[in-house]
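Sequence, structure tokens quoted for completeness.
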Amino acid sequence: MSSNEQYSSAQEGEGILTRFQNYARTRKGLVLLAEMVVSLLVFICFCASITGGYSTAPIIELCFSAIFFVIFMNQFDQSLSFIHWPWTDFIRCVIAVIIYIIISIIALASHIGAQIAAGIFGLIAAAIFAYDAYLIFPNLKKRQHVPAATTPPDYSP
């Protein structure tokens, strides 16, 4: 899916609800919404367990997914060109996969029901984040930054 197809639905002057609905129908929007929902489920399961540990990681990933959803929905990534958005999003996804795999293995090793459920949902979240990274990877090869000029400027008066 090209970025033009992704953003063709968000026109100038549309309401925020319309932009939300249009972006949520794109592949990237659906993946980000799935990341938010599964992160919320992992957070709820960790909070419901007796120990309540590891609940910080899912809430941070939930917040990052929501921030990126708002950025892409409102096309802030096109106006803020000083940030390389595909690399930023890719690194976010890779870090989330690593964190979710680690906390899921730890949660599955415990014999507490809510932590086991959090571990299973954590592995599902890791798979969704890995799929998101897989979708981002082709954009990393296409979009190259132009190197800065290395010749000194002409200062003739």
Notes: The radius of gyration is 19 Å. The helical segments are 3-7, 16-24, 27-48, 56-73, 76-79, 85-109, 113-142. The mean pLDDT is 85. DSSP finds seven helices and no strands in the chain.
